[in-house]
Amino acid sequence: MKTLFCGLWLLGSFLALAQPALKSAEQSLQQAGTAFYNLDGEKSLQLSHKALSQAYALKNDVLMSKAYNLIGLNIEEFYDPNKALKYYQKALEHAKLSQNDSVKIWVNNNLGNWYSYRKNDFQKSIPYYKEGLRNAEKINDWVEVMYAKLSIAGAYFGANRFQEGYVFLKSTEADVNRSKDDEPKLHYHSLLGSYYSHLGQYLKAEFHYEKAIELGEKNKDNLLDAYLIDVYNDFSDHYKKKGQFEKALHYLTLHKELKEKVYNDDRSKKAKIAGSQIEIDEYQRQIDKIEGEKTKQSKYLKESKLIVLLFVIILFILLLLLFSLYKNNAFREKTFTELKDAYAELQLAKEKAEEASQLKTQFVSTISHELRTPLYGVVGITNIILDEHKELAHSPHLNSLKFSARYLLSLVNDLLQINKIEENKITLEHMIFNIPDEISTIVDSLEFIAIKNNNKLQTELDTAIPEFLIGDKLRLSQVFMNLVSNALKFTKDGTVKVSAKLDRIEGSQYFIHFAVADTGVGIAPEDQKKIFEKFVQIERKEGDYQGTGLGLSIVQRLVELFGSTIELESELGKGTTFSFTMGFEADESKRNEILHNIDVDLSTVQVYRILVVEDNKINQVVTKKILETNHFKCTILDDGYAAIDALENEHYDIVLMDINMPIINGFETTKLIRKKGIQTPIIALTAFDKQEIMEQAISVGINDIIIKPFEPSKLFQVISNLIEQ
Ligand code: ADP
């Protein structure tokens, strides 16, 4: 029944378009439509396939929709009805994109037909018909409106909803009457026939069926024949229902005959189609391919859009990176050049500083050595005087001289070692000493400065402090000498008080709190840190005092060597207090041990023969005096070669060897002595720093080193140790 209407939906109105490509596509479609009418499916498919390709090339949705629609009709009619649906759906898709209402009407109607006649699914077909109707009403096309309504009525009747269908059927009456075509009239009357037959109004039904048959038989169009087959059948059913079997048979016979005729045609059509089946398949594949390519293309298009976007983003980021890299590089290059210059400058400065430091170290070392030698004389001679004139033992002047000389000597030693102080290369000695004695010696030796500045110099000593402590009394004196002399220098008409107080006892350690307080000029807060730096002196208006600026830095380092820290409290115009707390051993057994060692050395009865190799005359006198006072037999020689001779010819228990001698030095002399196989212990007696010569001394075969000036007890201890060995 549907075939009747197909033509309407497929040909529509072709616009005469100017563009040749478009025109050619339109022509293909028109020819395809005609071929479909003539049941030439092969040709129709060929042409609609061509039209589809052209439509894709033109990107024309209207043409695409029309081509798909026609392909759908061909497939449905001549190939496989089931496969037609997807082409109608494609057609609808493009129709919607095209905004062309006529195309939408045709496609919706074909879809409605497909569901109605192929699937008997009226629930699904009605919405498509109604959509077609909506579009037809939109463009005020009364013919399309009429066909759509007839289709809807048919579908409702098919679904047994006669009343709903009748409303649509009734509304077409006027249009059917004014239409010049037989098709709508035939459709209209056959539907009315069904309707009245259903209601049991048989006369009315028969009237309309007859009208429909009259129209069908009058028109010799093939397409109407197909419709007429159904009308005969329906009419036969009608009479059967009524019980008029004769009439029923009559119409059934007509139905069969016509069907036979159409069926035969159909067969020839089928045969024709069968021959082209393979080709149809081929078209099918080609159509699929076009479809596939289209999907691929749109996918590719999407992908390439994404790629372009990504590329742009990456390019942008790269540009940014490049820019920042460039900036960075420029900056780095600039910084690098600056750094290189600065480095070169620094390198130069470093080299200069190293050179200067080297020179300074060398200078200090040489000067110290040169100072030590005469100082050894001063200290030695003072000792000799004291020895020879026992009545002078209590002379404060002589004691001050001795003390000052010793202080000067240790200062020289510290100067020599000031570069090594940071490395803590000074090792503290362990000596027995008495704090009141040490302090009063310092106070006595500085009394003359006190008098000069009209200062009172007081001491305050805690009686709880043990009598004998063990520690480096020389370094402690050095600290006090610096602090007290500073206090006296920077105070006028005031008081300087030196105090020592037992702070606490921890095991065998006695912690003594020492303080040097004055009522002098004071130190400004901003200067209080600076004064501990080397060679720093604070400017003073009426400052006329002597000093090196080294005192406090030595004090600070020495106090730290003792494991303590120096504290400073000062107020400008009011005075200054330096204080620190140090721990000393007061172990009785240790004290006895030390005393015993010295006792042994000093009270030895045996007479040892000592060979002294020394070029300095004063030092010869001093050393000889020390040794002889302590019962050693002493031979003095002033040059190395003479010493070698003496050792070859005579026996000596010990050799005291000066290092710095003009003709052959102490190292060379020792080397020659050892070469001759003489094993007499050799003690280097030198003003050099111990660390400086240690390595060389050991390598040439020297047994021990004693630095001048020395405590006699220390020398005796070393001598007795070596002899015992
Ligand atoms: P010097 O005494 O040789 O100048 P110091 O290192 O001992 O060097 O002292 C550094 C500076 O600290 C002194 O120049 C002085 O300005 C200040 N100073 C040290 N002790 C005192 C003090 N008791 N009262 C005031 N100023 C002091």
From TrEMBL:
Please tell me the species this chain comes from.
Flavobacterium stagni
**Protein name in UniProt:** histidine kinase
Q: What CDD domains does UniProt report for this protein, alphabetically?
A: HATPase_EvgS-ArcB-TorS-like, HisKA, REC_hyHK_CKI1_RcsC-like
User: Where is the chain membrane-spanning?
Assistant: 306-326
In the record, 4-aspartylphosphate modifications are located at D658
| Gene Ontology molecular function terms on file | phosphorelay sensor kinase activity
User: What reaction(s) does this enzyme catalyze?
Assistant: ATP + protein L-histidine = ADP + protein N-phospho-L-histidine
Q: What class of enzyme is it?
A: transferase
